[in-house]
Input
Amino acid sequence: MTNAVSNTTVSPESDSTAVPTPAAAPAFTFAELGLPEAVVAALARNSITVPSPIQEKALPDAIAGKNVLGRAQTGSGKTLAFGLPILQRLSLHTDRPAAKRPRSLVLVPTRELAFQVVESLAPYANAQGLRVMPAVGGTPFNKQVEQLRRGVDVLVATPGRLADHLRQGTCILDSIEITALDEADQMADMGFLPEVRAVLADTPADGQRMLFSATLDREVQSLVRQFLPDHVEHSTQDGKASVRTMDHYVLMVDRGQKDLVLSEIGAREGGRTIMFARTKLGCDGITDRLRALGIAAESLHGGKAQNQRTRVLERFKNGRTPVLVATDVAARGIHVDGIDLVVHVDPPADHKDYLHRAGRTARAGEKGTVVAIVLPNQRRQVLRLTGMAGVKATAVNVSPGSAELNSITGAKKPT
Ligand code: AMP
Output
């Protein structure tokens, strides 16, 4: 199994069902980044244990003090990608920040985002005794003045309100060590760039800077040229999630209709389908229900003997079995071309598993569709996972026989 590490494209003829793909293990754990134990524990309390793709890429460079340009959208985990390095760096101080002189600055386009960033960072800042404070319009100016006077580690501000504080001398930026610009493209769209430039010009030129943006149009690029001349660039779009020929859908179904929807998907004609379930028992249950309707499905999981698994996979490859129902572990090493539909019957455990499952389709430039069958109570969880994975999923309500279900998956009534 060791050859898998150097051999990223296991040949389609390979029968191995247990070869881990090289990306199977995260590049590092949060603890390995040198984050304090209290922060790692606080992350774990929020179920944050596996770095998201943008975190995996950006955190080591950001913690090393480099300027970072991150291309990532909301939901990708970008707040912690710039927030944890800020906190890490500020935790090295033994004294409190001086009055009116924050040590780091996060610029965001909207009030809502400012509060969200403060809320996201608060548990990890608290764990290290650091003070994070929002400075946005629409809230009392004098209260902010007082808080700034008492000393702030991380100031999370909108450009307009921060400019007011700078003009009045109630905030001074000469002690800023690290600045993050979040959603720079939105700031450009909202016409904030003149203020953003003025603010950045007020921060020490030798400070660390990070800029996150979903897109990099001309205005954002000019900001980068001026304020992050030396930087490393990281993008969620570099990974598997960006395979352009892959379409992602979250299919919302009513609880009582899930089995019917699955059977219509299983009955589709044409390509190969792979369905993912969490457990062996789950796989067998789905397979039995499909077979009872005359659909040639087979299950693949660790409860089967190796020679059985080899034969199941052989029949899937040669087209005799169009539908394979698998667990995550059993499917890890499957490299079969021509799988054009991946179905998450149960939600994946995390964004890594989402990507591993999705990666069974759209191989070698082929087109592929990935659908998650989602009950109303799973909707938030699954949308969060797709966000973490850096994929843009379209959410659609479907029901048995619905036109949407047919057009997305090719589903039809079993005959
Ligand atoms: P963001 O893209 O920063 O707005 O983050 C979206 C959501 O994902 C927030 O609720 C974060 O708390 C959460 N989150 C961030 N990183 C991770 C991670 N590595 N694993 C799971 N959830 C995360």
